[in-house]
TrEMBL record:
It is a multi-pass membrane protein. Keywords: Cell membrane, Membrane, Phosphate transport, Transmembrane, Transmembrane helix, Transport. GO terms for cellular component: plasma membrane. It comes from Actinotalea soli. The chain crosses the membrane at residues 33-58, 91-117, 129-153, 183-203, 240-263, 300-323. Residues 92-319 form the ABC transmembrane type-1 domain. It is found in: Cell membrane. Belongs to the binding-protein-dependent transport system permease family. CysTW subfamily. This is Phosphate transport system permease protein. GO terms for molecular function: phosphate transmembrane transporter activity. One of its GO terms (biological process) is phosphate ion transport. Part of the binding-protein-dependent transport system for phosphate; probably responsible for the translocation of the substrate across the membrane.
Amino acid sequence: MSSTDQQPARPAPPTGLRGLVERRTSRDLAGRLFSATATGAGALILVTLAAVAVFLVVRAWPAMTTPAEELADAISWIPEGSTLLGYVGPLVFGTLLAAVLALALAVPVATGIALFISHYAPRRLASPLGYVVDLLAAIPSVIYGLWGGLWLAPRLLPAWQWLADNLGFIPLFREPASTPPRVIMTVGVVLAVMILPIITAVAREVFLQTPRLHEEAALALGATRWEMVRMAVIPFGRSGLISAAMLGLGRALGETMAVFMILSPGFTYSFELLQAGQHQTIAANIANQFAEANPLGVSALIATGLALFVITLAVNTAARWVVARRKDFSGAN
């Protein structure tokens, strides 16, 4: 007798109504397990967000409830007689100003690069160029800080001097200092380079999702390539481009080391972009003061972190609202 004849016969799979019930039960169990896992993952995000908010409020509460006189006496870097709100206000202003400058510089360049890679560059060039742009996102922020402070800032001085000479009548471009300009405008340029790969990568993928029939219809009607991009590609990818810009804005709002290593800090509400000692951001200020802060000082710094948390939450909420308003142009539709 062969070895195959000695093996026990495998039971036949259940058939009929019993088999159908067992298969349906197995599918239902897998579906419920997947649904529970997905729901738990979504709830974990909400719980984490709530935990961060509670932590910030609890740790910032001592500084928020301390009188201004005691706060200024206990914390050396808070001006005499200044309230916590008066201390946080210039930091919020500097953070928003740096982020807006970075966004204003990065979005047009990133959009142009994304359109070139997706619709203009030859295929042999598009892939390597996209890879090189993506590599910018892998560079640590401290390297950007060293590059911006030691190499870029001195080389930007002629450009800032030209702006002052030709547009100095505008308060934004008042005469810069003669030293390497460690100013908010230089910070904006460095932050723009840092957020460029994020915006470019998202915008490129959105533009590549434009339906081919839309592009061919525009070309068939006699449109040039630019007219096709303007009438078909950009409207289709507008919501995605807004989302990309908001991702870049979130990176710019929270950037620490690059700003800390470049900017000459100050605590004023000033729109003089080429003047040193005028601005400071929340994240850079925390990095600068945290090591030597006493317990009340740590509470004050956490209060500034709470302000940054609220700003970031508001920015993302506004972005979702804008994207929802443009849903007719989204790739999903």
